[in-house]
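Wed. Picked up where I left off yesterday with Bifunctional protein GlmU. The coffee machine is broken again, so keeping this brief.
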Amino acid sequence: MEPVTECILLAAGEGKRMRPLTTSRPKVMIPLANRPMLEHLILAGKEAGIQRFIIVVGYGEQAIREYFGDGSRIGVEIDYVVQRKQLGTADALRSAEGLVSGNFLMMNGDMLLSADEIAEFCRMPIPALAVSETDHPEDYGVVLLEGDRVVNLEEKSKNPKSRLINAGAYLFSLEIFERIQMIGLSRRGEYELTDALMGYINEGSLFAFCLRSWMDVGYPWDILAAHELFLDALQAENLGTVEEGVVIKGTVAIGEGTIIRSGSYIEGPCIIGKDCIVGPHAYIRPRTSIGDMCHIGNAVEIKNSVILNKTKIPHFNYIGDSVIGSGCNFGAGTKIANLRHDYTVVHVGGIRTGRKKFGAVIGDNVLFGINCSVNTGSLIGSGCRIAPHSFVDGVYDDETIISR
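Structure written out below (tokens, as returned):
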């Protein structure tokens, strides 16, 4: 069998479950350890032998095109095709017809997968579907197997018959394009790839490959688990300036142009981007990711959090187990709580995070006055303005003005 060297990546969706982080960027461009999640997937594919990627873009496509270009920066070939309306996975695949030359890999762009497993999957008989085991299969499409063959696919069910779910990675020949031409709209008004797969299932020809490393990044709190994975594999690096009196323990990567001022204490693994100012007397705790051009100032403590580019947390702030968008500014003394008094799992907007320690999700360009308090499980939309001494608790839409 000829090696699989081409891959179609589905990256046209907005990622509504990721709001407010997708207000100004497509989901696949949300950074994990200071790289867009899509870049992690492309680099894994490259290591597995994929040479050419066709990215199906739509929402926020310009951000993807500008960042990746033709792929030469990261040593691959990248082409783009546009899915203007989100009419389902089969429609997204159909938009790439004619752009692949033979057997190909297809993956959702918002998942994480190791290079070893991509390479192993690409050696499967064709057609093949990647599956993964989960403890909450009711949130996904469920897969039923007999041996190494798929015998049924179930839509999201309250009583799933299996713990195996469709992981969003497929191995196809060009024949799949003939099959998707024959399907109609589903009950949801979309062209579903699962409808095309049912033909293979009825023929007994759809193989299953069980993944071990797969991770779905569906909600903002999943970002914490995902970036922890990458930080655990981080290589220490210092391209910035570290003043005397700074303590660095563990694996820490510091970007070019960044200054770590005296008295700061940094515990790895953590990553700090380019052109940041940290300190004096800042405390950066393990599994924290700080983007480019951020300011983490005097007597600020940050623990197990993701801070996107150009955010300023400059005076006497505490950020714990949170995801903070870009361009935010925290007034002096503003703090985020990350643990309930009853020690139960934190919910955000009624959705279970699965984490006993979780602070807040904060969108882009949110401005806090001084001495604000943000409760566990809060979600603050992009562009919100929060008055001094405010108590923030719950879910707030973009551009909300929050006062005491």
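Quick read: The longest helix spans residues 37-47.
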